[in-house]
Amino acid sequence: MSLAVTLSRAQEGVAAPQVMVEVHLSGGLPGTNIVGLPEAAVREARDRVRVAIQNTSFEYPNRKVTVNLAPAELPKDGGRFDLAIALGILAAGGQVPREKLDDCEFLGELALSGALRGVSGVLPALLRARARGRRVVVPRANAAEAALVSDADVLVADTLAEVCGWLRGAQDLGLPTDPPPPGIDGIGPDLADVRGQLQARRALEIAATGGHHLLLSGPPGTGKTMLAERLPGILPPLTESEALETCAVLSVAGQTVDPQHWRRRPFRAPHHTASAVALVGGGAVPRPGEISLAHNGVLFLDELPEFGRHVLDVLREPMESGHIVVSRAARQSTFPAQFQLVAAMNPCPCGYAGDPRHSCQCTPDQVQRYRARISGPLLDRIDLGVQVLRVPLGELGAPPSVHDEDSATVRARVVKARQHALMRAGRPNAEISTRELERDCALGPAERRWFDAALERLGLSARAYHRTLRVARTIADLDGGAALLDRTHLAEALTYRRF
Ligand SMILES: Nc1ncnc2c1ncn2[C@@H]1O[C@H](COP(=O)(O)OP(=O)(O)OP(=O)(O)O)[C@@H](O)[C@H]1O
Ligand SMILES: [Mg+2]
């Protein structure tokens, strides 16, 4: 029979749908045709595969070769199907045996020499193949990424010749080496470097515990960027499945996953000149943007008002839903985007409004226009706002005081306090629904009266009401997880609404 089928996987968002490569050899004019909605890069596989087969000392069939990539409606691009196509052609011509092809998937681009090149999106493909109980052969360039998926049946190859040798039973293929044990201490900047800034440190700890979005505002050089960069170091470590989700986004973006640090939460800090597409994702072949690369981690927007207003507005929807749908012509891809936003800004264009030691040069009108660049709906989604004021110079040079705790100490408290929220709702407090909020943020009658009066006095919106309660819940969790919120929790939460 001159028909053979091999298996591979396409890339669609962070999904990896199966693709069947059907190869048929028939009489008629020699030539090769690839059908099944291939994009340009896949059509070019025709030439790559022919030369690679010839350079691997096999014969390219001198017949009519039809390659069908099914399902046809699934868009396909890149060189990821090269290996599966080459093996299909060789199997259809009887040059390699078919037995092992049925329960094995193949990923990899071919060089003209027959060497295998790495492809993007290997991680999601492996997760799907593992669920189906299938073995996967991947190029050596993807071995480190493949090693992250525990219990996956993965073999690593350098060339087409090796894979053919393995199919014939003439040789074994390599295994991916195990990843180093996940370590998270000692990576990235540590909170011990920050002097003073007790209120900002406290806000950072609350943000880490509840997963709340945070806005740091203050004059230049007070340590806002420094503090923000230290948030990932105090967040609870990623679980294995969270880490795999985050790495899957990196993988489909074609970026290398660092096997040493793959359990650390991502920290993405796009520059303020970034376009909306760079931020949320897009392109002819939809690629994830910064908000998806920050999935399960931190998105840091430094100099918030300098970002284009429409760029910031596209953040509103994923901030609520935790994912983003990128539509381009006929294609639509969904990427996860459960990120924690940390933003930093100066209070005015010159940066010194409110600074006791510098006079501000800005007119009230300039200050107002500067702040208006950030839309109200975006600010409304930020739970914690904190003023970062100047630390006295003497304190900067002094040795660390007892208040200058390191990241590991703070993280231990965060992990413990977050446990209360996970036990109650299974999620950090920033993500609980309004109904769960009513259930979990019970107030006694006196506290309720006090809280209502305080909100009235501060003129806060209904959304701000819920956000303040969520923060108060997190503060109570840090305070031992009491079921009833008391006035100190509420009062502290209200101090973070002044922005
Ligand atoms: N609280 C602090 N403890 C230790 N060093 C600090 C502190 N604040 C500022 N510094 C020093 O000042 C430098 C600048 O801090 P950073 O970049 O975080 O300021 P910033 O608030 O982000 O300023 P800008 O508004 O200009 O962006 C830091 O690299 C650090 O050396
Ligand atoms: Mg800064």
TrEMBL record:
InterPro entries: AAA+_ATPase, CHLI-like, MCM_dom, Mg_chelat-rel, Mg_chelat-rel_C, Mg_chelatse_chII-like_cat_dom, P-loop_NTPase, Ribosomal_Su5_D2-typ_SF. Keywords: ATP-binding, Hydrolase, Nucleotide-binding, Protease. SMART domains: AAA. GO terms for biological process: proteolysis. Pfam families: ChlI (PF13541), Mg_chelatase (PF01078), Mg_chelatase_C (PF13335). It comes from the Bacteria. GO terms for molecular function: ATP binding; DNA binding; peptidase activity. Residues 210-392 form the AAA+ ATPase domain. Belongs to the Mg-chelatase subunits D/I family. ComM subfamily. This is ATP-dependent protease.
